[in-house]
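tool_call predict_complex ligand=s-citryldethia Coenzyme A
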Amino acid sequence: MSVRESKAVPAGSATLNYQNKTYQIPALAGSEGPNVLDIRKLYGDSGLFTYDPGFTSTASCESNLTFIDGDKGILLYRGYPIDVLAEKSSFLEVCHLFLYGELPNKQQMAEFDHSITFHTMVNEQLVQFFRGFRRDAHPMAVMCGVVGALSAFYHDSTDINDPRQREVASHRLIAKMPTLAAMAYKYSVGQPFVYPSNALGYTENFLRMTFSVPAEEYKINPILAKALDTIFILHADHEQNASTSTVRLAGSSGANPFACIAAGIACLWGPAHGGANEAALKMLEEIGTVDKIPEFIKRAKDPSDNFRLMGFGHRVYKNYDPRAKAMQVQAHAVLEEVGHQNDPLLKVAMELERIALQDEYFVEKKLYPNIDFYSGITLRALGFPVSMFTVLFALARTVGWIAQWKEMLEDPHQKIGRPRQLYTGPKQRDYVDIAKR
Ligand code: SDX
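tool_result ok
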C-alpha cells in the first residue's frame, strides 16, 4: 500500500482534570483551519469516551483534499479557490487535481482524458439490470443498484491493496457515472440507451447520452455544456460531509470501491444532504408565487413545524456558501440561454433569498442559501427532470468520494471505523418466562 505520511505538527497540549485525575491531551495543527485535540489515547488512559452525535466538533481524519472555512465562506480544492476553478478550469481537470494532487500539464491532461474516455462504456450485461426496475423507479434507487453492481463486473480493479487497481477503479467510476446516469434517465422516459462517443468531451458526452434520440442529430449547446461542467466542478468534493464519511467508513472495512461509492450514493439521496436540490425546487414550486413566501418563512421558523427552507442552512457554512454564489451565476447564464430569464421560480428564489437574509431568525441562526438552492432551477432549465437532480450531484461527487476513499486507504493511521456510544439502556436483568410476565 503506498502510504501518505502525516503532515500534522504538534501544537501544544490540553490538560483534562476529571474525578481527581489529570490527563494531558496533545494538540495537532494542520496547514489551515482549527487545531485538533488528539484523543486517540484518551479512552486507554482514562476510560472515558468523548460524545459528539453528528460529529459537529470531531475531525474524523487528516486530509489534503478540500478545505472549508465556514465563517469566511472559503472553499479550496487542493488549495485552489472554488470560484477560480469554476471560472478557469474544467471538471476533468479538477478530477485530475483531486486524484493526483496537481493541475495537469497538457500531456498529463491528454493522457487522463484518454483514459477516462476509454472507460466510458459499461458491460452490456448491465443493461439487464436496468430492465429489472419499474420505469417509474426513482433514478437514485437505480443508481444505488447499478453502481453497486459494478462490483460484479470489474473484478480486475477491486483489490484495494493494489495502487494500480485503485487507480483503474477510480478512472472507471469517474468515466462510467455519466453513462449510468444517462441510462437511468433514458430508462425512466422509455427511450433507447445512447452509447458514449469518444469524439466528445466528458460533459458533452453526458448531455448527448441523456438528451439525444436515434431519430435525429443532437446538437451540443456549448454554453449549456460549459454551465453543466461548471456545476460538476462546484459539486466535486466537500470535505467530510455525510456521504463522503459514508464512503470512508465503508472503505475502512476493506469493501471494494464500487460498493463504497454505492453507499455514498445512498447517503447523498437524503433530503438533508444531496436530495436537497430536488427538495428545494419542489419547495419553490409549492411556494409558486412571491406573495406566498411569508407563510413559508413563518412555517420554517415554527419549532413545532418540521418544515425547513430547503436549500438554506449548512453544517459548516455559517456565512455564505461560495458555491451558491457561483450557482446563481450559472442559473442566470442558463436561463438567459434557454430564454427563461423570466422564469417565475427564479423570481421566487431571489425574493425568498432576499427576505430570508433580512429575517432575524435566519440571520441569528446564520442560515444562508447553500449549493442546492439555485442548482434545481438551473438543472430544470437544462432540461433535467427533478428526479435526476441528485443523480447529477452523485455524478459530480464521485471524484470527491473516490479521492477521499484513496486518501483513506493511504493513511498510515487508517483503521476500521468503529465509533463507541453513551449507553443509557436497561442494566443487566433476568429473563422472565412468558407465563410469569
Ligand atoms: C448539502 O455537509 C456538506 O458539506 C453537505 C453539502 C456537500 O456539498 O456535501 O454541502 C451538500 O447537503 C447542503 C445542505 C443541503 N440541505 C438542505 O438544504 C436542507 C435544509 N437544511 C437543513 O436541513 C440544515 O440546515 C442542514 C442539515 C443542512 C444543516 O443542519 P445543522 O447544521 O445540523 O443545523 P441544525 O439542523 O441543528 O439547525 C440549526 C438551527 C435549528 O434550529 P434550533 O434547533 O437551533 O432552534 O437552524 C434551524 C434548525 O431548526 N435550521 C433551519 C434550516 N436549517 C437549519 N430552519 C429553517 N430552514 C432551514 N433550512
